[in-house]
Request: fold
Amino acid sequence: MTKLDAITEDTEIEEKRQQMYAALRALDAFGFWTIQGDMEPREPRVREVPHVWRWKDFEEHVMLAGEIVPHELADRRGIILHNPGLDMTKPATTNTQFVAYSVYMPGEVFHPHIHSPAASRMLLKSDGKGYTTVEGEKAYLERGDLITTPSGTWHDHGNEGDVPMVWVDMLDIPVAMLFNAGKFGFDYTENGVAREMQSPTRSQLYSQRHFAVGGVRPRFAEQVIGNDNGSPQLHFKYADTRRALNAVRDEAGDPYDGVIVDYVNIMDGGPIQRTQNFSMQLLRPGEHTLSHRDTSSSVYVVIEGSGSTIINGREYKWEEDDIFCVPTYMWHEHVNASNTEDAVIYCVSDAPAVKKLGLYWEDRKDSQGNVTTIGKAIPA
Ligand code: GTQ
Ligand code: FE2
Reply:
């Protein structure tokens, strides 16, 4: 008989304990030791699962939504990607992100709104005449362009082109909701008058002309956007990002992520949103990265090429316009399936939030399979 058996076998005391537990329940409390096993996992516990949402499967529905779901029915026309490990008590793509394919049809104008969650768009399809206006910067978007909507910035969307515009929304809504700090506003006015769209207040291509040349910054550039919750550069052109990747493609690159560039806030060199890190990574023909895992979670959009990501030992194949996620603390390595073509994948992670909260560490596997932990790790 173990000591624990002896303790619980004293029926008189056990009965008293159970009575006390019931009394504590009635007082809206409980003994920590009664739930401790659930509360204190030896490794991060993750409900989300790796998953690929294939554009091939979504295209017909996204286009149909553009035809049969009018603006009156959908204030924004996003088709949210719901992680198969989560139920509707958590309608999200990962623990911290809300990701959607959204479509805006020729001639459409969607009205301005504002919110505390941070948002972003990665443009997939357009003839160059679809736009979003963020805090007065009207940005026409092309494939691979990123535009952010920092927390507390007005934004409205529209399409002046001849073809449907499709982009990927990536928001930190679950983070805002965790802190009970989600707030949305819809009553946009200019000089006290309600308006259906923002009048541009920044000149055309303001972001590019002020911020997109690295190393120098105009002294008179607007340094604060909205409530000062992100980079003053909102719009990042794919041509610029691709050029940055090409410029370093002959370097060794990062063993875990290949030739990768982070989008940075030109004011401080940090990530462009408080809760989200944005990166673009080039996997050269035949490249197969080493495996690592960390306490952030990521969502990827495939911009060029095809390949796969091996997540906790299982292969997840992807092609252009597919979206996939790597949940928290899962080993992952990326493979470009082609020996002749580049693959380029775009990634938004929650690492800045995790780091600020002191919860970040990373495990790296070398080519021999030896694991090294980087950062503040809790001993086993
Ligand atoms: O386009 O501003 O998918 O506010 C969810 C919330 C898109 C948007 C979403 C949003 C938006
Ligand atoms: Fe929004």
